Amino acid sequence: MAAELLKIHPQNPEMRKINHVVDVLKNGGIIVYPTDTIYGIGCDLMNRKSIERLCQIMNIKPQKLDLSFICNDLSHISEFVRRLDTPVFKVLKKALPGPFTFILESSSRVPKILDVNKKTVGIRIPDHAIPRIIVEHLQNPLITTSIKDDDQIKAYTTDPEEIYEDFKHKVDVVIDGGIGGNVPSTVVDCTGDDFSIIRQGLGDFDQYL
């Protein structure tokens, strides 16, 4: 059965539609959704079968799975990372919500995804209402990865209708939240003695130091 293409208002998401998406996720579904950077694909972090399916869709081996979570606020983050030192917490408080992925040491609560115990996780709180409200009502993070294009010139697909054509037989819901961006998040490693930018994307991290 083909996926559902669901148009949701990016600033004022309709709760009836959000609740529908949450039900899909709770039942093991995979969704494509907008963020403040590029479109992502994800599922409920606590549903192992969904994660296995996500790996198959994206052709990712579990051992190579880089965990990136969508959370809805800083208190949510604290459940899944080992500790937030004061300097790190202060920076996260200033930079989030925003176009950053922060690499942090994972807590014991993080499930051993597909029997692979990852010591670090990437945490995102996007500055976009749709994914944050979904996560708030799901009450679990979304485990997520980016939607990439096969086109050598265009790295990321921005049109949700194009994304739908690519994924309509692979996922359960594609959320149309408008045209997405084509620059990914800036990835910042917080596990060392200092902040280290692993990937420069959207957002100027230096302004938060």
From TrEMBL:
PROSITE patterns: YRDC. It is an enzyme of class 2 (transferase). Transmembrane segments: none annotated. This is L-threonylcarbamoyladenylate synthase. It comes from Ohtaekwangia kribbensis. SUPFAM superfamilies: YrdC/RibB. Its EC number is 2.7.7.87. NCBIfam families: L-threonylcarbamoyladenylate synthase. PANTHER family: DHBP SYNTHASE RIBB-LIKE ALPHA/BETA DOMAIN-CONTAINING PROTEIN, THREONYLCARBAMOYL-AMP SYNTHASE. It comes from the Bacteria. GO terms for molecular function: L-threonylcarbamoyladenylate synthase. Residues 15-203 form the YrdC-like domain. Keywords: Nucleotidyltransferase, Transferase. InterPro entries: DHBP_synth_RibB-like_a/b_dom, Sua5-like_dom, SUA5_domain.
